[in-house]
Design brief:
Layout lengths: L13 H12 L8 H9 L6 H10 L2 H4 L16 H18 L5 H14 L3 H7 L8
Helix pairs in contact: 5-6, 6-7
Length: 135
């Protein structure tokens, strides 16, 4: 990549950073220090392994993700103004029903899924974990 306006002027040179991390991870004998070993052992996630993955997968979609965009592909959609108004009305109706803020991205996808499944956006969003605080 070219260096330019987007570069971080305070970032360390990559060769300097590698030298520093290598020196910190090895002791004078050339072996890995105990501190580095304990950090790497304790940095494993608490939900690792098959049972941890099963626990994560059993969570509703809303709670499995770190952001609204995680696990989604961006698709350009061109909408008529009436459709945009319908989306806003649907968001208002669902937020009132579930008594919580809902991402527009979730509502739009729930509307598409509901249309394909022959159900309601509310049912899809409830399956994804919305409205759980009211149960």
């Amino acid at each position: 990549m070219k260096s330019g306006a987007g570069d971080d002027p305070f970032a360390e040179d990559s060769s300097e950073a590698e030298d520093t991390s290598t020196d910190a991870d090895t002791d004078q004998d050339g072996g890995v220090s105990e501190e580095t070993q304990s950090v790497s052992e304790s940095s494993s996630p608490s939900l690792s392994g098959p049972s941890g993955q099963a626990q994560t997968q059993s969570l509703p979609y809303k709670y499995r993700r770190d952001s609204v965009k995680q696990g989604r592909n961006q698709q350009p959609v061109f909408l008529q103004s009436e459709t945009e108004e319908l989306i806003e009305k649907t968001i208002d109706r669902i937020e009132e029903r579930f008594d919580e803020n809902i991402y527009k991205t979730d509502v739009v996808e729930a509307m598409l899924v509901a249309g394909g499944e022959g159900t309601t956006p509310e049912a899809v969003l409830q399956r994804w974990g919305y409205g759980m605080k009211n149960r």
